[in-house]
Amino acid sequence: MKSFGQIGVQMPDIIAQPLTRDAFSDFGDVIDTAAGQSFAVNGGRAMRHHDLARIETLGDGSYAQLSIFLSEPVELPFESDILEQHPLGSQAFVPMDGSRFLVVVAPASDIVDPASIRAFITNGRQGVHYRASVWHAPLAVLERRGEFLVVDRGGGGNNCHKQRLRFRIRTPD
Asked: Residue 2 has what pLDDT?
């Protein structure tokens, strides 16, 4: 950890690792056509990669919503000062253009323990599905502007909690 800002406050130095289903399983699902059940549809003209993530919606009047995010790139090492969580439903990010992106997560809890933060780098074909209440950093695309299909919960209630916490993500030396 490195010191920053206030006396005695340490900034975690987190090493990003390749995104795999096993490594990410505590936080949600990796959305990837290389895994899961698949079968031909539409008269054999298309392949359906079936049930890659279960979208969670919790609370009255909620619904699954689809959005498209356009995101500007960040550079590694990447520093951030915020994590967010969505306690009323899960959230999925799937690149539509092969963009690699940084995935920063911490287990669901009331307050983030800096030692619990994990970081992953996708391969450009993978998406992620964050379980409800899992802490995560905002979308951080690498190399170039990215376009993402986002599936999350719509409806009433406060579904976005934020925690200020400075951290830096880097790749292995």
From this structure: 52
Arithmetic mean of pLDDT, 35-49: 82
SS3 for 114? helix
Instruction: Look over the chain and give the mean of its residue pLDDT values, rounded to a whole number.
Output: 90
Q: Report in angstroms the alpha-carbon separations of 124 from 136, 142, 146.
A: 19, 10, 10
**Which helix H or strand E contains 24, and what residues bound it?**
helix 21-24
CA angle 117, 100, 14 (to 5 degrees): 20
Residue of 149, 161, 163, 166 lying closest to 64 (CA atoms): 149
Determine phi and psi for 43, rounding to 5 degrees: 65, 25
Model pTM?
Answer: 0.81
| CB 119 within 8 Å of CB 83 | no
The alpha carbon of residue 60 and the mean position of all alpha carbons in its chain are separated, in whole angstroms, by 25
